[in-house]
From TrEMBL:
Residues 305-461 form the Vanadium-dependent haloperoxidase NapH1-like second helical-bundle domain. The keyword Signal applies. This is Vanadium-dependent haloperoxidase. It comes from the Bacteria. Keywords: Oxidoreductase, Peroxidase, Signal. SUPFAM superfamilies: Acid phosphatase/Vanadium-dependent haloperoxidase.
Length: 476
């Protein structure tokens, strides 16, 4: 069976991490050609991999590009309205050709992509040339339509509270209550073991770094559905330091990571999505590309699906970061080292260690992401995305998977897994649940952070879906 180029690229993207994607494409003589929406999604994911933006900023970037594409497309639909200009750009029926739609979308997506990733302009220009367009010559009516639609979106997003024009720098004056922990050394002291603590470690480039809390202002970013912060505020508080629940959640991570199977380790690493990856929001955009190929989408279907999906993950980032900032909760590495210092405990790799030196099952060059534990971003992003893909496709069937090669672990190179491992997700729900569970296997999140993140994500995804559907149904 011929392999769709978008899925071949997907396979290559994960091959570097020892994972080969099993395409979810039905048997057919020739796969459907990738739409221009998928082409721009691929280009943006490539920029994301070479960039340095964290998950909530990546989610927003995907939303901005796909909203610009949607708003440009809406001008050529008889019913849909744009998110910023409503139906004011609507073109007459005679102009509603596939070529005009595609051209308007490309000019809009190019403008947004360059705005978000200016250092990658050459690659975006190259895609425009490949598609037969000159970004320096926006003289055609479709080009002007796409640029007008996207300019309105960018004007809105430049003032959405993200501080994009200021490099996404914090605008709230956040400061951690705890001094940094040096990961390579035993924990000496921590002022508040229930609160977030910065980590000092050596990164992939060999530099000693102490990353600050990523985007503590993100909960204030303007939500697509208008409900992200309200839904976040309904999430119950996490376990507090000094309580039995706090000790129990740490004990669960200690005992669980001590007996990890090869399959659990593979799950932890496959879903890690750390630096130089698509990050969790981009991961689900890759899955959406599989859905597009599987279901043989045309342009209209892809515009709608990616628009709803990208805005759901943007809102998931806003909601989960609102909860993270509200509770400023400790990661397992802080809680476990505090609770188990001076005690001999079993840990992954068959070792017995002093609890003060415990580390999660993660690459040492990125031991724990630099932001609070509760709730899990992976869980929230994934549940929101799965909710939208279920709604859009009319069912939960997915059929995706990944093959993890023997010995391909970056945590235990050459050792794990001891045999080839195949991960399969018959449904979107199973993929999302595994993404959340992976962070518990990896020692990054507690059970409540995962499960409450999933619940929050489903609510966020539902709200974003309703809003997106209202736009393309003409209700705005």
């Amino acid at each position: 069976m011929p392999v769709n180029p978008s899925l071949r690229a997907l396979t290559v993207a994960f091959a570097a991490a020892g994972a080969l994607v099993v395409p979810a494409v039905p048997a057919q003589s020739e796969p459907a050609a990738r739409t221009v929406v998928v082409r721009w999604n691929e280009a943006l994911l490539s920029a994301i991999r070479t960039g340095t933006l964290g998950p909530p900023m990546v989610a927003r970037a995907l939303a901005v590009v796909h909203t610009c594409a949607y708003d440009a497309w809406a001008a050529y639909d008889p019913v849909a309205v744009g998110t910023r200009l409503g139906g004011s750009l609507r073109r007459p029926e005679a102009e509603r050709t596939e070529a005009n739609k595609a051209e308007a979308i490309s000019y809009a997506a190019h403008l947004a992509a360059v705005d978000l990733y200016p250092a990658q302009r050459a690659s975006f220009d190259a895609l425009m040339a490949e598609l037969g367009h000159d970004p320096a010559d926006p003289s055609s009516l479709p080009a002007r339509t796409g640029l007008a639609a996207c300019t309105a979106v960018l004007d809105h997003r430049h003032a959405d509270g993200s501080n994009q024009l200021g490099g996404y720098a914090d605008t709230t004056g956040y400061a951690p209550v705890n001094a940094p922990m040096v990961v390579a050394d035993p924990l000496a002291s921590v002022d508040d073991p229930g609160r977030w603590q910065p980590l000092t470690y050596r990164n992939k480039a060999g530099a000693v770094v102490t990353p600050p809390f990523l985007a503590p202002h993100w909960g204030a970013v303007t939500s697509f559905s208008g409900r992200a912060r309200d839904l976040a505020d309904r999430v119950p508080a996490p376990a507090q330091d000094g309580t039995p629940a706090f000790r129990a959640q740490a004990a669960e991570i200690v005992s669980g990571t001590a007996v990890l199977t090869d399959r659990q380790k593979a799950i932890a690493e496959y879903w890690a999505d750390g630096p130089s990856s698509e990050t969790p929001p981009g991961h689900w955009s890759l899955f959406a590309q599989q859905v597009s190929a599987r279901d043989r989408h045309g342009l209209d279907a892809d515009v709608k699906m990616f628009f709803a999906l990208a805005n759901s993950v943007m809102d998931a980032g806003i909601a989960s970061w609102e909860v993270k900032r509200d509770h400023d909760s400790a990661r397992p590495i802080t809680a476990i080292r505090f609770l188990y210092q001076g005690r001999q405990i079993r840990t992954w790799g068959g070792r017995t260690i002093d609890g003060a030196t415990w580390v999660p099952y993660q690459v040492p060059t990125f031991p724990t992401p630099p932001f609070a534990e509760y709730v899990s971003g992976h869980s929230t992003f994934s549940a929101a995305a799965a909710e939208v893909l279920r709604r859009f496709t009319g069912g939960d069937a997915f059929g995706g998977g990944a093959a993890i090669a023997k010995g391909s672990s970056q945590v235990e190179p050459g050792v794990s897994p001891a045999y080839d491992v195949t991960l399969r997700w018959p449904t979107f729900t199973e993929a999302a649940d595994q993404a959340g569970l992976s962070r518990r296997y990896g020692g990054i999140h507690f059970r409540a952070g995962d499960l409450q993140g999933r619940s929050l994500g489903r609510a966020v995804g539902s709200a974003a879906w309703d809003r997106a559907k209202a736009y393309w149904s003409g209700r705005g």
